[in-house]
Amino acid sequence: VTLIDTSNPIDNQTIKFKIGARASSSQPAGTYTNTINFYAVVNPAPMSMSDAFAAANKTKLNGYYKMQDMDSTICSNIELTGESSQTQLIDTRDNKVYWVAKLADGNCWMTENLELDPTQSTTAANMNASNTNATNAAISNYLNGGNPDGVNGWTSVAVSDFLDSNATKPNLVNSQKDSLYTAYGPFVINGKARAGIFYNYCAATVGTYCYASNQGYDFPGTLIDAPYDICPSNWRMPTGSESGEYANLVSQYDDSDAADPDSFQYNYSVVLSAGISPYYGPGGSGWFGWTSTYDGNGNIYVNMAESTYTDTYADDRMNGYSVRCLAW
Asked: What are phi and psi of 123, to 5 degrees?
């Protein structure tokens, strides 16, 4: 039996199935009839990212669909890779626009570095649990100098140069956000792209995971994978380590030559923005992305990619790195 679904003229999908009948020798000869109720759930044909948002009846802000409206259903309906799998979404906290794409692991990723600056009063006023991957209590502490454990806190989220060894404060460096760094992929300008903002881990986790070596300060006391982060709601930092989500994404691409459109570096639009710490300044390398994963030895995994090489390794939480978010 062949059925054609005409209820959705976009799909007109053909469904084939077989029907069997069981006869009994104890029944008299004759003709028997009955009614068969058939129910089926059919996945829609893959759509462009914009069409997937439209099909979910999402609304636009300033002409863009919202990052905070992304969900697993929308992502699953998007065509895998290619131009139609990419679009720009707007972060409702500060109205900055980012390229995002569905990549070869089947997940939707930011393909630009996060540039959220909570030191701007309008941005801070817009941050809450409905649009940030954190609780209202964490956001309040983050913005207002709260004391997460009642012992040591911070006084503000003022921009830091990261040369202060007291990294308890949720520090960020936004002096680099308008600089252009060497990059790969389709979302660059003359081979360059924005570095975004560098966050220490206290800032990247909205003040819920902080450390200052000169004070013996560690929060939380029992270190775990980070529960919250600075990403928009419905997005989060990826997991790290050699078995994490970043490593899995890299493994989906056979080539590691950034000039190849089929390479990881090209599709992820790797930005060689490095990081910043008390020991070195920004620029020149591909150490660019915090993860949510604790390594068991006091450090957090950081993702890395250069033109022909990728890796993930654990680093000190008071250093500053970019943030890339994964939809979930």
From this structure: -65, -45
The model's pTM:
0.82
Q: How is residue 96 written in tokens?
A: 């900055």
Confirm if 89 and 57 have CB atoms less than 8 A apart.
Answer: no
220 cis-preceded (ω within 30 degrees of 0): yes
* pLDDT (tens digit per residue) in 95-140: 999 999 999 999 999 999 999 988 888 999 999 999 999 999 889 8
Q: Given CA atoms 189, 111, 310, 205 in this order, what sign does their dihedral have?
A: positive
Identify the CA nearest to 323 among candidates 105, 115, 87. 115
Residues paired with residue 326 on neighbouring β-strands, in sequence order: 109, 236
Question: Residue 52's closest CA among 105, 101, 111, 113?
Answer: 101
| Residue 108, strand partner residues | 102
C-alpha pair distances (Å), 76 with each of 15, 146, 286, 292: 21, 39, 30, 23
Burial string for 63-100 (b: 16+ CB within 10 Å, else e) reads: ebbbbbbbeeebbebbbebeebbbbbbbbbbbebebbb
At residue 229, φ and ψ (nearest 5 deg) are -160, 180
**The one-letter amino acid at 3:** L
- Nearest of 50, 44, 45 to residue 100 by alpha carbon: 50
How far apart are the C-alpha atoms of 221 and 149, rounded to whole Å? 9
Tokens of 27: 């029944």
Strand 60-61 and strand 275-276: the pairing is unpaired
Look at phi and psi of residue 307 and say left if phi exceeds 0, alpha if psi is from -120 to 50, else beta.
Answer: alpha
User: For residue 87, what are its two tokens?
Assistant: 């679009």
Q: Helices (H), strands (E): how many in the chain?
A: 7, 20
